[in-house]
Design goal:
Layout (H helix, E strand, L loop, with lengths): L10 H24 L10 H25 L10 H10 L6
Length: about 100
Amino acid sequence: MLITTLLELNLDEIVKLYDGRGGMEMQIKGDKQALGLVKQRQKRLYTQEAMILLAQLTHNLLVWSRNWFLAATKAAKVSTERSVKQALRTSGEVH
């Protein structure tokens, strides 16, 4: 049984959207692990909101940089967790 409010879509389209949700949830879980946000417990609502916004910004920057800089390489398919580990191991300077 499937209950939905997306009345303008047919069943196949709804199922496809729902199937994509699992992939997104796995990506969010991987991002949280990679960014060390798995056990972050913030007591204040503002702090929780700030942490979520920073995590989303970091995720978007990682995905954007991976797609833009690494699109033609094997590294474009690397997980967020591995990307973060690789980036943290890289030495460099900001001028």
